[in-house]
């Protein structure tokens, strides 16, 4: 039985009757990177706030480290570092002073401050007032604040927000290394799907308050709409031929797309034997974004059908 | 018990902050105002009047500060502004969501803010009285400094304002809008004298009136200031903690 | 310009300032009302005068200056708090228009406050059944004159509210300048140097009557108008060239 670090039981949050988070059952395994995906306004931040005890659920429960957040809040938070939405800071204080405040509350050594500043690349500006920081620097500071004290669980809300490509790569590499090097479990929420695809081991997709998918990244990718992309001449006749053979065919740009899992070699043979020229054949695996859009589109369609 | 650490961090958050200007500048202002007042009126008028009524110069100076200048009236308003500043530090940039995901009990955070407001208020009050002593010496009062009088004055103020401190800690913790607690404080100091004269029993329930009872010079019952301050602080803080614990940080 | 004014008005619509502006002068009137009521039984009293002076004391010394402090803090807070300056000032509107429309809005609020005050006095006086004709010259004219003499306070508070991002600054400064007003207003020699005494002394000139004082009153109006123009002018100049980071 896989051990889940975070488990929620029908976790719900309603605002004036509107369910921002609707009965979700998160199962976040220990030791991996969990990508929490969803469009803006889907309920990611609200869920995270409930996990951290910032807001109380309307119904349901949230458990971290096998403890309930409303009963054992202190024990849980001792092991969690977080950054919710945009980074928080005291503008008129320096980066060092900001981190020092957290350090003192956590009661860890002073050396922690420089350690985390180094990790996020802000060591040089430690004595600069945060109000003078660029957006990317503030973002890094937020991550540093979450890292201080070496938590077992890291919850990061849109951590690459505002960073330039080099920065994004650095933070991604940092996050990816955490489970291996330090045994830290990371929960990353985002709406940038390519980022999640490159980092996550497990994924949960939330849309309009509902958890519509939860599983490993591989499971999600398997759902992918793999297609075979064929370039054949003469095109129109080739399409007719394939249709007669019972394939689902779509025509896009100059190519022919077969919309289900088929064997490329069988298709090639089929066409060549019938005197078609095949000049291109490839397997087109759609990326996470397409899968995501597909899943959420289906959700919305179901909703519309239900309404009708 | 993280309370001492929290208080320490609260103070460090105010480093290079505007609040120091306030708690130093206000007593400076009152000292100068009292100096001018004494310079102009003491020798010709106040000293003579005092002799008639049997007051020492130090008594008169205190009365001028508390009643004529209006220190006793305005003190709650200054405290409202102090409380606003202490909490505004957190509301700016959404710092509550960081602070309350650290392993600290919510009530400790709440009380640490309360104590911080108390500390700054105490400094301001003490400096105001110190300023008075300075004025008296510079003007050259004939009588020796009456330490007991001024010591009592400071201590009575300390206890009397506890109710206002607790109330504004509560108000400022609940709303990001800084104007509301200030308007309420303003309302309090305006309404206070009216209620005192019309309905003295009701006045005992309003924290804004307690500074009026501080008077080693006859008017009013000073013990009301003490009891009122302590009891209102405890009651309001209990309600405040319960409410703060349940609050959603959005 | 009118458009700007409308926009500014919309911004503060939800900030309850209307309630505050209406409520506070009424508090002062209530004070005056109970004062006048208490002495009503006695003969030979000037009921209107008592009502007026009973209310004016608290209004002129405390309520009006603090209200000015609060209203300008609110008007500028909207942009300060949400980093709104960079949005507002990159729209195709002239900076002068923004500045002046905020000033005008605040002045309208102050005038409104004064008008509520004088209407309140009128109504209270009628309820109390004051004898003789209503001394309109006192009740209507003086508050309106007080608007002019409160121009220095308006200018200073406006300037400080604009300049400092931290809303505690104008609130703290406004509170502390209001504090010594009671003391200084009592001094016949030095009041002229302290603008916070101007409103209350405009409304209650029975403090002193002499040729010298009349001269001072003239000076007061002059100072009010001149200081207003210069402070607002300097503020506008600085605002026009300010870097919005």
UniProtKB/TrEMBL annotation, chain A:
InterPro entries: AAA+_ATPase, ABC_transporter-like_ATP-bd, P-loop_NTPase. The keyword Nucleotide-binding applies. Pfam families: ABC_tran. The keyword ATP-binding applies. Residues 6-233 form the ABC transporter domain. Keywords: ATP-binding, Nucleotide-binding, Transport. Signal peptide: none annotated. One of its GO terms (molecular function) is ATP hydrolysis activity. Belongs to the ABC transporter superfamily. This is ABC transporter ATP-binding protein. It comes from Anaeromonas frigoriresistens. The lineage of its organism: Bacteria, Bacillati, Bacillota, Tissierellia, Tissierellales.
TrEMBL record, chain B:
Keywords: Membrane, Transmembrane, Transmembrane helix. The chain crosses the membrane at residues 18-40, 68-89, 110-133, 153-171, 178-196, 224-244. PANTHER family: INTEGRAL MEMBRANE PROTEIN-RELATED, MEMBRANE PROTEIN. This is ABC transporter permease. It comes from Anaeromonas frigoriresistens.
UniProtKB/TrEMBL annotation, chain C:
Keywords: Membrane, Transmembrane, Transmembrane helix. It comes from the Bacteria. It holds the Pfam family ABC2_membrane_4. The chain crosses the membrane at residues 56-78, 99-127, 139-160, 172-194, 214-237. This is ABC transporter permease. The lineage of its organism: Bacteria, Bacillati, Bacillota, Tissierellia, Tissierellales.
């Amino acid at each position: 039985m896989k051990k889940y670090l975070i488990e929620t039981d029908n976790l719900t949050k309603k605002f004036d009757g509107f369910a921002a988070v609707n009965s979700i059952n998160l199962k976040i395994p220990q030791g991996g990177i969990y990508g929490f995906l969803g469009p803006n306004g889907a309920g990611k931040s609200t869920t995270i706030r409930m996990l951290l005890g910032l807001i109380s659920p309307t119904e349901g429960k949230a458990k971290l480290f096998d403890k309930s957040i409303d009963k054992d809040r202190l024990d849980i938070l001792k092991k969690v570092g977080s950054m919710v939405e945009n980074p928080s800071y005291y503008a008129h204080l320096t980066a060092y002073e900001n981190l020092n405040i957290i350090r003192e509350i956590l009661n860890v050594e002073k050396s922690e401050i420089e350690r985390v500043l180094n990790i996020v690349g802000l060591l040089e500006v430690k004595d600069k007032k945060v109000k003078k920081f660029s957006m990317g620097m503030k973002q890094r500071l937020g991550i540093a604040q979450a890292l201080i004290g070496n938590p077992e669980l890291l919850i990061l809300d849109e951590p690459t927000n505002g960073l330039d490509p080099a920065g994004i790569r650095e933070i991604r590499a940092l996050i990816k290394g955490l489970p291996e090097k330090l045994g830290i479990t990371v929960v990353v929420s985002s709406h940038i799907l390519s980022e999640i695809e490159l980092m996550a081991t497990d994924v949960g997709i939330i849309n309009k308050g509902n958890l519509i998918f939860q599983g490993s990244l591989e499971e999600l990718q398997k759902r992918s709409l793999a297609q075979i992309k064929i370039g054949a001449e003469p095109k129109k006749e080739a399409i007719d031929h394939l249709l007669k053979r019972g394939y689902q065919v779509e025509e896009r740009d100059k190519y022919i797309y077969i919309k289900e899992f088929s064997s490329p070699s069988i298709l090639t043979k089929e066409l060549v034997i019938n005197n078609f020229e095949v000049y291109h054949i490839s397997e087109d695996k759609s990326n996470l974004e397409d899968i995501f859009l597909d899943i959420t589109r289906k959700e919305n369609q179901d909703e519309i059908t239900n309404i009708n | 018990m993280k309370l001492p650490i929290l208080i320490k961090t609260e103070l460090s958050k105010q480093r290079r902050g505007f609040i120091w200007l306030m708690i130093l500048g206000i007593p400076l202002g009152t000292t100068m105002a009292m100096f001018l007042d004494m310079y102009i009126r003491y020798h010709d008028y106040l000293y003579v009047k005092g002799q008639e009524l049997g007051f020492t110069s130090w008594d008169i100076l205190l009365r001028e500060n508390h009643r004529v200048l209006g220190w006793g009236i305005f003190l709650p308003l200054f405290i409202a502004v102090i409380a606003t500043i202490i909490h505004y530090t957190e509301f700016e940039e959404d710092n509550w969501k960081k602070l309350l995901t650290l392993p600290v009990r919510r009530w400790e955070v709440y009380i640490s803010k309360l104590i911080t407001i108390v500390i700054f208020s105490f400094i301001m009050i003490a400096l105001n009285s110190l300023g008075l002593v300075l004025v008296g010496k510079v003007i050259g009062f004939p009588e020796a400094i009456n330490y007991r009088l001024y010591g009592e004055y400071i201590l009575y103020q300390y206890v009397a304002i506890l109710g206002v401190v607790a109330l504004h800690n509560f108000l400022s913790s609940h709303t990001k809008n800084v104007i509301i607690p200030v308007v309420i404080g303003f309302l309090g100091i305006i309404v206070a004298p009216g209620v005192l004269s019309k309905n003295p029993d009701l006045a005992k329930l309003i924290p804004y009136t307690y500074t009026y009872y501080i008077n080693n010079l006859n008017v009013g019952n000073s013990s009301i200031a003490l009891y009122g301050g302590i009891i209102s602080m405890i009651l309001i803080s209990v309600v405040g903690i319960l409410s703060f614990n349940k609050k959603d940080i959005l | 310009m009118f458009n700007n004014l409308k926009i500014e008005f919309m911004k503060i619509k939800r900030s309850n300032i209307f309630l505050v502006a209406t409520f506070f002068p009424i508090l002062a009137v209530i004070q005056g009302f109970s004062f006048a009521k208490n002495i009503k039984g006695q003969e030979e009293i000037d009921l209107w005068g008592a009502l007026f002076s009973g209310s004016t004391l608290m209004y002129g010394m405390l309520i009006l200056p603090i209200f000015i402090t609060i209203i300008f803090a609110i008007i500028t807070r909207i942009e300060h708090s949400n980093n709104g300056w960079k949005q507002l000032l990159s729209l195709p509107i002239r900076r002068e228009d923004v500045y002046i429309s905020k000033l005008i809005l605040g002045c309208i609020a102050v005038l409104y406050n004064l008008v509520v005050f004088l209407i309140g006095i009128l109504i209270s006086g009628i309820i109390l059944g004051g004898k003789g004709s209503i001394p309109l010259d006192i009740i209507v004219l003086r508050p309106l004159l007080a608007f002019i003499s409160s121009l220095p306070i308006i200018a200073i508070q406006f300037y400080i509210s604009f300049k400092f991002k931290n809303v505690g600054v104008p609130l703290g400064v406004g509170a502390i300048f209001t504090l010594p007003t009671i003391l200084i207003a009592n001094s016949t020699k030095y009041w002229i140097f302290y603008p916070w005494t101007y409103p209350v002394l405009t409304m209650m000139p029975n403090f002193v009557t002499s040729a010298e004082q009349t001269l001072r009153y003239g000076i007061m109006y002059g100072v009010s108008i001149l200081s207003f123009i210069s402070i607002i002018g300097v503020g506008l100049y600085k605002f026009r060239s300010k870097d919005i980071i």
